[in-house]
Amino acid sequence: MITKEDCFNQLRDVIDAVLSTVDENGNPQSRIIDIMHIEDEKIYFLTGRGKDVYREIINHPKVSYLSLKDNKSIRISGEAYQLDDQKYWIDLMFDENKFLNNVYPGESRYILEPFCIENAEMEFFDLTQKPIFRKTFTLGNAKITPKGFVIGDNCVACGICKGVCPQNVPVEGEKYCIPQENCLHCGRCFEKCPMQNIERL
């Protein structure tokens, strides 16, 4: 069973991740920005004050991080904020990520600003098994946003949902149910239910 700590270990092992932001025109922007440090279930990273991504985070702090390794993804969605004691955090992240010294040698490192994501949802998604497996964790005070589909109380147990599901996930019974940890969220069952008894969360 995947744990929150397993996800943190994968994030630090991969390091390279895609950070998505929103620009001043409301357009999505994505870049590779390494995850530099994880501590107390908080995600830390750096970016330069002259970069567009810096302004985007300042103006629209909601961000999303996506990391992928061996067809197992981790997505973190939350708000990023600037850290006080900037020199401490910059030096700490440079100590942990030695390659940064080649990119920003000497005092040039202090053009960077340290950011933290504290309250966020973190979803693990594994495509290597069948049925697929997903699990969502919370960081800080975040709440899990329900996603996927559920079968309503008027189910007639016809089994069509199970037959059309790419992962064959719905569980048979007097009333079928969809194990949320195995749902692809594709909506095929929702579209094919003859009773229109499946609801989107």
Automatic annotation (TrEMBL):
Superkingdom field: Archaea
Domain annotation 4Fe-4S ferredoxin-type: ranges: 146-175, 178-201
InterPro entries: 4Fe4S_Fe-S-bd, 4Fe4S_Fe_S_CS, Pyridox_Oxase_N, Split_barrel_FMN-bd
Coiled coil residues, start to end: none
GO molecular-function term, one example from the UniProt record: oxidoreductase activity
Pfam families: PNPOx_N
Protein name per its UniProtKB record: 4Fe-4S ferredoxin iron-sulfur binding domain-containing protein
